[in-house]
């Protein structure tokens, strides 16, 4: 078989395997794997034949022990298969074995993107930041427009307090993908200066002191970013006179009152929120936690009532069983007693 034919087959196999991984072993993915087996058989490629047969054991037959046995039995020099075996061990938390396979893949192809990227992530987890940056830089040397590598490098540089380097990487991402909102948001987070924002808002409010949106933004920055609760509370009071059902402002005010120990007043606020936002889980949970935190015995019935409301409003996105365990433990009662 010519090197050109082998190369084309490898591209085909890699593409099939990528699609199978992307669709997580659904019916289309199974068909692609079966196609891969036929292609490998037709072209006499024993490495990929074993590889796809092993993948079928995993995705189609759910024979995980046999899958691992077959995977480890593949004697291959193919960098892609070596990387995929490494991924299996990474997912099973066998990091040293995984890195060994990544290294073998890189011996075969020093520029293997997947192996370099995974090694970089491992080095990050191990806090070997210099090694992680080397991996990302090796990728970018050959693929300077790799958005994934640029993003990974930017986030790591930001964590290492190299703001300038991180911004440079995010700028490159946005030059490649102008609509990349994740990179745009990360960049905004790096350059975010709450003190400067308050200064700008004060300048704008000089000419328009009653502007609701500006006041609300100032209260949010004061509360969430500068920890100026008292000043934020004053602004919330002004805002609620204009829009008494503004849930965002009510949440800020309720939290501030809780922190200040004014639980009764906070309870009134949190009771108000569901009227304008009946599914507001957050308000109910904060009210519950406030009662629990301050251990107010006289409010025990209120706490139990809030617990009931939380679970009854529990959407599919929440783990109801976890709620039950949590509130049983917190209230010191069985679930049946709580829900009576």
Instruction: Give the low-confidence spans.
Output: none
| Helical content (DSSP H or I, runs of 4+) | over 70%
Shape: extended
Determine the strand fraction and express it as a percent band: under 5%
Major sheet characteristics: none
Count of strand segments: 0
Radius of gyration: 28 Å
**Overall mean pLDDT score?**
79
Q: What order do the SSEs take from the amino end to the carboxyl end, as H and E? A: HHHHHHHHHHHHHHHHHHHH
> How far is it from the N-terminal to the C-terminal residue, by CA?
75 Å
Q: What structural class is derived from the secondary structure elements?
A: mainly alpha
Our count of helices gives: 20
Write the layout of secondary structure elements.
Elements: H1 3-22, H2 27-42, H3 46-59, H4 64-72, H5 79-91, H6 95-108, H7 113-125, H8 129-142, H9 147-159, H10 163-176, H11 181-191, H12 194-207, H13 212-224, H14 229-242, H15 247-259, H16 263-276, H17 281-294, H18 300-312, H19 320-331, H20 335-338
Concise overview:
The chain is mainly α. The chain has 20 helices and no strands.
Report on this structure.
There is one protein chain. The chain is mainly alpha-helical and 340 residues long. The protein is 77% helix and 0% strand. The chain has 20 helices and no strands. Helix 2 runs antiparallel to helix 3 and helix 10 (163-176) runs antiparallel to helix 11. 29% of the residues are buried.
């Amino acid at each position: 078989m010519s090197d050109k034919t082998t190369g084309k087959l490898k591209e085909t196999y890699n593409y099939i395997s990528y699609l199978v991984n992307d669709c997580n072993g659904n019916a289309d993915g199974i068909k692609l794997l079966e196609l891969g087996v036929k292609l490998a058989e037709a072209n006499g490629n024993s490495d990929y034949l074993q590889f796809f047969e092993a993948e079928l054991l995993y995705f189609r037959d759910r024979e995980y022990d046999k899958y691992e046995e077959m995977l480890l039995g593949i004697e291959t020099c193919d960098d892609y298969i070596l990387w995929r075996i490494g991924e299996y061990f990474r997912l099973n938390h066998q990091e040293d074995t995984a890195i060994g396979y990544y290294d073998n893949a890189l011996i075969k192809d020093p520029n293997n993107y997947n192996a370099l990227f995974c090694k970089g992530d491992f080095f990050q987890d191990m806090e070997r930041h210099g090694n992680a940056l080397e991996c990302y830089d090796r990728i970018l040397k050959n693929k300077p427009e790799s958005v994934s590598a640029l993003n990974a490098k930017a986030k790591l540089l930001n964590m290492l307090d190299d703001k300038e380097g991180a911004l440079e990487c995010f700028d490159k991402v946005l030059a490649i993908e102008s609509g990349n909102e994740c990179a745009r948001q990360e960049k905004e987070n790096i350059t975010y200066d709450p003190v400067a924002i308050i200064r700008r808002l004060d300048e704008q409010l000089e000419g328009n002191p009653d502007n609701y949106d500006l006041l609300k933004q100032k209260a949010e920055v004061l509360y969430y970013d500068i920890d100026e609760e008292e000043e934020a509370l004053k602004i919330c009071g002004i805002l609620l006179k204009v829009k008494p059902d503004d849930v965002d402002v009510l949440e800020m005010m309720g939290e501030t009152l809780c922190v200040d120990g004014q639980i009764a007043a906070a309870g009134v606020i949190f009771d108000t929120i569901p009227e304008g936002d009946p599914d507001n889980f957050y308000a109910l949970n904060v009210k519950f936690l406030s009662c629990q935190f301050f251990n107010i015995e006289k409010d025990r019935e209120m706490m139990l009532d809030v617990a009931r409301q939380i679970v009854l409003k529990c959407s599919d996105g929440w783990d109801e069983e976890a709620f039950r365990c949590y509130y049983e433990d917190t209230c010191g009662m069985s679930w049946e007693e709580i829900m009576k």
